[in-house]
Amino acid sequence: MSERLTFDAPLIADVEVLVCGGGPAGIGAALAAARQGARTMIIEQQGCLGGVATSSLIGTWFGSYSRDGRFPVIEGIFKEIVDRLVAEGAAMPPTNDLAGGSAYSGYAPWHRGTVPFEFEAAKRLFDSLVLDAGIALRYFTTALYPKIEDGRIAGMFVASKSGIEYIRAQTVVDATGDADVAYRAECPMLIGLEEEGHRGWMSPGAMSFVLEDVDAQAYGDYCRAGDYRFRELIGRLREQGEWPFTDNIFIAFELPNPKQYYVKVSPTTHEQGFDGTDPDVLTLGMTKGREAVQTMLDVLRKHFPGFANARLTQTAPVIGVRNTRRIVGEYQVSVGDVRDGRHFEDTIALTGYHWDMATPGTEQRLLHKVEIALPYAEIPYRCIVPRGIDNLLAPGRAISAEWDVLGPFRIMPAAFAMGQGAGTAAAMAAHSGAAMREVDVAALRDRLRGQGAIVDGPEA
After folding, report:
1. Residues 59, 107: contact at Cβ < 8 Å?
2. What is the largest CA-CA distance in the chain?
3. pLDDT band at 233 (very low <50, low <70, confident <90, very high)
4. Which tens digits make up the pLDDT trace of 245-258?
5. Comparing C-alpha atoms, which of 177, 167, 179 is closest to residue 138?
6. What angle do CA 209, 319, 325 make, to 5 degrees?
7. Distance (Å, rounded) from C-alpha 23 to C-alpha 48?
8. Where are the beta strands (DSSP E) in 175-268?
9. How many Cβ atoms from other residues are within 10 Å of residue 366's Cβ?
10. Summary count for the chain: helices (H), strands (E)
11. DSSP secondary structure string for all residues of 296-365
């Protein structure tokens, strides 16, 4: 049963590039588009930019250096942000963290070039960058449905405190993370795993929280002794009935203040994973997540070195979602492409991260036995171009790729880089009238190089 609502939505903006979603991909897209001279607007349903970085309290960026730590693979807008935060003492530079694994407590040996940052400084910086670029910024505004005319999006119906409104746009960047715009434009979609028997299954959600008054020395000493993910301790606690979580590992990352850590716990909501497109599942994840945080804090204080006097200061206002919908794009990046170190003629971004996808009921799906030929992977423009709509791009974790490929591709620095490529392409398309699939990729890559972005690996 359904009801029909009919009304006139007021026009509130007329732009060349509309960016839906203010996470890393959306920030990169909006800044790049505006700096190409396009009239740009960004809408975000929360009250800050940053996405999972700020609203889900994922307080570190990694993957911007090659996996061997020899050279940067992501710069451009991402580097500009990092440099600004480092200059005000609100982040640690990646160059502090390159030799022999991470220098910070809680990170894995393969985490190199990590950038722990402070949430509030990042929120303020994102605001100023966007406003200084002349971008129209609208918080507490959610993309609802696109208006489709002749295979193009003519504009977006959005929801805010003012009700249902309309934004006219020449091009649209879907940076929602869940491909909300592309999905509602009826572009072909994939969701979750593609394997028989597990089709549609998604990764667990993650509730992050911040602890203070952690004894960094005691915690770091234990990690550096070898049990950096606490598998041995968790195994013993599980045998004793003292570990009530499905996770077999413990993740707590040191922030710029070494007595402050962000910690992640995966609340159990469904054996098939966490469907971040279902509001009932999201609600359950938030309530069970806060409950799990308190349970974990009790365990940490009792059993984990360094946490005896830990104090909870914040839980994330938005639960972390690793993956949901993915577009079917002009090209789907395969595990084989990443494994073999494939070079693409239309590469717009690189990533230095590795296989890292969590499946329901397990902690990770690392494809340990699948070696990656190069210490980075390339991300082609075609994988952010959805089929079915001429003037839409979808950078970030909704890209067209096999599920396991999201491991190296979904990380935040790569999303900033993909967003920068998407925003530049959207501005080019808005100015030329070309369909997104017809954008001159050689010219796009040249423009990205001119912006300081990295689109060529040293072995290319």
Report:
1. no
2. 66
3. very high
4. 888 888 888 899 88
5. 167
6. 145
7. 9
8. 189-191, 207-212, 251-254, 261-265
9. 15
10. 11, 17
11. HHHHHHHHSTT-TT-EEEEE-SS-B----EEE-BSS-B-HHHHHTT---TTEEEEE-----B--TTSS-B
Q: List pLDDT tens digits, range 180-220.
A: 999 999 999 999 888 777 778 788 888 999 999 999 889 88
Instruction: Quote the mean pLDDT of the chain.
Output: 92
Structure-block tokens of residue 407: 């491991």
pLDDT confidence of residue 7: 83
> At 442, which amino acid appears?
A
Phi, psi of 153 (to 5 degrees): -85, 120
Structure token digits, residue 402: 């096999």
CA distance 355 to 353: 7
Query: Across residues 28-44, what is the average pLDDT?
Result: 98
Distance of CA 113 to the CA centre of its chain: 17
On whether the CB atoms of residues 119 and 69 are closer than 8 A, the answer is no
How many Cα atoms are found within 13 Å in the side-chain-facing hemisphere of 430?
29
**pTM here?**
0.96
| Distance from C-alpha of 240 to C-alpha of 242, rounded to nearest angstrom | 5
Helix (H) or strand (E) holding 78: helix 76-87
Specify the 3-state DSSP secondary structure of 30: helix
The structure tokens listed for 432 are 């030329």
User: What is the tens place of the pLDDT at every residue in 83-97?
Assistant: 999 999 999 999 888
Q: How far apart are CA 379 and CA 43, in angstroms?
A: 25
Sole residue written with tokens 């990046």: 333
Strand order in the sheet with 311-315: 251-254, 261-265, 207-212, 311-315
Label residue 110 exposed, middle or buried (CB < 10 Å: 0-12, 13-18, 19+): middle
Give the separation between CA 177 and CA 22, rounded to whole angstroms: 10
Distance spanning both ends of the chain, measured CA to CA: 56
Half-sphere exposure of 116 (CA within 13 A, CB side): 20
What is the band of 366 on the pLDDT scale with cuts at 50, 70, 90?
Answer: low
Q: How confident is the model at residue 144 (pLDDT cuts 50, 70, 90)?
A: very high
Q: pLDDT tens for residues 367-394? A: 767 888 999 999 999 999 999 999 999 9
Cα 58 to Cα 23, 33, 180, 249, 253, distances in angstroms: 12, 26, 22, 17, 9
Q: Please give the average per-residue pLDDT across 345-371, as a whole number.
A: 79
- Residue 337 and residue 382: Cα distance in Å, rounded? 14
Q: Which residue has the tokens 């794009």?
A: 329
Angle between helices 24-35 and 76-87 (to 10 degrees): 100
Domains and CATH numbers, the chain: 11-196+323-450 (3.50.50.60), 207-315 (no CATH)
